Amino acid sequence: MRSILAVDGGTYFHHFAYSDPQVARHIRRRVHVRKLAEVTLADFDVVVLPCRLDPDLMAPLREPLLAYLGHGGTVVSLSAEGAEEFLPGVVWSPSEVNFWWWLDQTNDPGIRISRPHHPLFRFIGAADVVWHHHGVLVPPPGAVPLVEVEGKGALVYVDRVSTPGRLVVSTLDPVFHHGSNFMPAATRMLYGMMRWLAEGDLGDTLAPTVAPLDAVTRSRPEPAEPPARCCA
């Protein structure tokens, strides 16, 4: 079982989410973001950065995080907004957030799993990644998008090209919604992702470590069943 360091921003939703036994059982240690600089990151296999961390507090931690990735560590950022200040290769574009799209049963937000054979999806399903999202990502050349909004960009990707380590970036915010007791899909995603990080195959055989010579050539998402409604 991998050792996971969970960074805590001190909010109620971080506290609630990390205190949930289904999440806490996978966490070796919790640390407040203001104390992260005092931690030896190399002691952990995975560092989880939840949504809604203060970028001003994270920016000074860029060098320790890069050093950790440089030695093969795994960083999971569940918030892309501001992440370009402290993580490599992150290109994030904001988009309008439609919190209530699910009230219209004919509305399809276009969220699709683009690599259904990736080991992450042994732990979470198509309906578990469908709720509103906070912008889209342009993965670095060679990074592997796992969840995308059709025709717009990625919501989750794995990058093994920018550093010798493994960087997972998402614009979905499961910690916030689970910690706020709102959005069942987010709870399922958080539970599944924590299990995957702790004990699953991280999918390295599906993620190249060298960018393609022709730069960005992303494959089209594979056909998928229409997603179940997020709040059912």
From TrEMBL:
SUPFAM superfamilies: Class I glutamine amidotransferase-like (SSF52317)
Superkingdom of source: Bacteria
InterPro entries: Class_I_gatase-like
Protein name, UniProt field: ThuA domain-containing protein
Lineage of the species this protein comes from: Bacteria, Pseudomonadati, Pseudomonadota, Alphaproteobacteria, Rhodospirillales
